[in-house]
Amino acid sequence: MSVPAAGEPRVAVVVPVYGNEATLAELAGRLGAALVGRSWRLRLVVDASPDGSAAVAAALADDDPRIGVTVLTVNGGQHAALARGLADEADADVWVCLDADLQDPPEAVPLLLDRLACGDVEAVFAGRRGRYESPLRRLTGTLHRRVAGTLTGLPPDAGAFLALGPVVRAAVLSGVRDRGAPSVVLAVGRSGRPVTSVPVTRARRPVGRSAWTAGARVRQSARSLAWAVRTRR
What we know:
By secondary structure, this protein is α/β, with parallel strands linked by helices.
């Protein structure tokens, strides 16, 4: 385990987990390699996953004190799990939200952290690039993000892979808990703080299928955009 340099910000990486027992070990290994020399923690939020994710997460935590696990008994969805993880990791200076299926490359986390450290923005999104999903899912996702960007001022390629500072984290937690935000991403947009994105090419999922069915994607998009309209200033 490398020793972080003095003054390095403490980074908490929050990962919602649902049906990811096959990718968690690789995720933790690649993240640790990417963050060598930094002070970091990994919070795995197991969202009532029906597979063996909770057992795999617990074993990883037993082997590395930097890894913490939150196990939810009722499935609340990706964004509720992210909010719970952000709340559970209070002792950090910078937070990163990352998916567990390895489509979001852990090696891109330093890129987000370095851009955030420039100090002119308070959240940095990993702008979606690449042919990581079917053409139809990419098209519908792009349309959703463009409408969300128009409503909130978010970058048009913003998704749920991002780094955020303490003011935006607080705004996200307030947005989800007190204002009923169904999306961490749109809650960032409603924070009113300066944000940006940097392009990051996603990878195809190495195993399994997305937990987001077509119907679930439509419902989540409708809820999120309706919330953005209701909360327009």
